[in-house]
Design brief:
- 51% of the residues lie in helices and 12% in strands.
- It has 269 residues and is an alpha/beta fold.
- The protein is globular, with a radius of gyration of 21 Å.
- It has a six-stranded mixed β-sheet with strand order 1-3-4-5-2-6, with helices on both faces.
- It has 13 helices and six strands.
- The longest helix has 22 residues.
- Bound molecules: adenosine-5'-triphosphate.
- The site of adenosine-5'-triphosphate (ATP) has 18 residues, from helix 3, helix 9 and helix 12.
- It comes from Cytobacillus mangrovibacter.
- This is AAA family ATPase.
- In the C-terminal section; belongs to the peptidase M41 family.
- Keywords: Hydrolase, Membrane, Protease, Transmembrane, Transmembrane helix.
Length: 269
């Protein structure tokens, strides 16, 4: 039996500058939301209620977890992170009691961000979700999200690849106030992500000069794919005793990543 689902982590070291591809309207909305959360009294004077819950949705590996960590860092909040599947227990009441203790722990360490990844495993539509036990766990989550003033100083962030699977009651304003779509990065986003993941790596001159081309040729890659690409290239360079990443390492890693994504797509089909 899993013993604990929530881990309070020290302040994440990830900042918004580490998340690439957050642009335009979404960036503005996130910045606005953060400024309200940083100065809730000022917002209240303007008749604005600070948001309690945020949903991040989009394909796997696009940086939803990263963004949640960066938001926690911006707010100087303790980060409680867990996955929706860790509440699925066959024993009566265990899931609900885990939800309760997650929020109780967060209330002891305000300001706090409570992050639940794969929230569809916990807050899926009740009819499809099925099972009395899952329903009790979801009901407990709704009760905790409705905690009123006891939730002041707590921001709930949920992430999913399947927004369409979520229960309407969970998505109700007051529980989830903002939903942000985190899509696969476009060309500009990939360029930013490539810059982030090459910051601390030594690149050969011809690799440095071709990063823009790499951004162009990696359409369909997620941030996680790009991160993995540079990890693979670095590993190969180290194995070969090189001082920097060369064009051949990138080509090798590209083949691997493209192969990996198509195998995943076949397995998912
Ligand atoms: P999942 O839906 O599978 O949980 P996710 O959207 O939460 O995925 P992350 O776990 O945040 O994705 O991303 C995994 C890793 O990929 C990150 O730790 C980071 O190294 C890299 N990454 C993903 N997206 C980005 C991004 N937008 N900017 C920079 N790095 C990224």
């Amino acid at each position: 039996m899993k013993q604990s689902v929530s881990k309070a982590k020290p302040l994440p070291s990830i900042s918004l500058a580490d998340v690439g591809g957050i642009q335009g309207e979404m960036k503005d909305e996130i910045m606005q939301t953060l400024s309200i959360l940083k100065e809730p009294e000022r917002a209240l004077q303007m008749g604005l209620k600070p948001p309690k819950g945020i949903l991040l949705y989009g394909p796997p590996g696009t940086g939803k977890t990263l963004l949640a960590q960066a938001i926690a860092k911006e707010l100087g909040a303790t980060f409680f992170s867990t996955s929706g599947s860790s509440f699925n227990e066959m024993f009566v009441g265990v899931g609900a009691s885990r939800v309760r203790s997650l929020f109780q722990n967060a209330r002891k360490q305000k300001p706090a961000v409570v992050f639940i990844d794969e929230v569809d495993a916990l807050a899926g539509k009740r009819k499809q979700h099925g099972g009395e036990e899952s329903e009790k766990t979801l009901t407990e989550l709704l009760v905790q999200l409705d905690g009123g003033h006891s939730n002041d100083g707590i921001l709930f962030i949920a992430a999913t690849n399947r927004k369409d699977m979520l229960d309407d009651a969970f998505l109700r304003p007051g529980r989830i106030d903002f939903s942000f779509h985190v899509p696969l990065p476009d060309m500009k986003g990939r360029k930013e992500i490539i810059e982030i993941h090459t910051r601390n790596r030594k690149l050969a001159e011809n690799v440095m000069c071709s990063l823009e081309n790499l951004a162009e040729s990696t359409s369909g890659f997620s941030g996680a794919d790009l991160q993995s690409l540079f990890e693979t290239a670095s590993r190969r360079a180290v194995q070969n005793g090189q001082k920097c990443i060369m064009k051949e390492d990138i080509d090798f890693a590209l083949d691997r990543t493209v192969l990996g994504s198509s195998t995943r797509a076949l397995q998912d089909a």
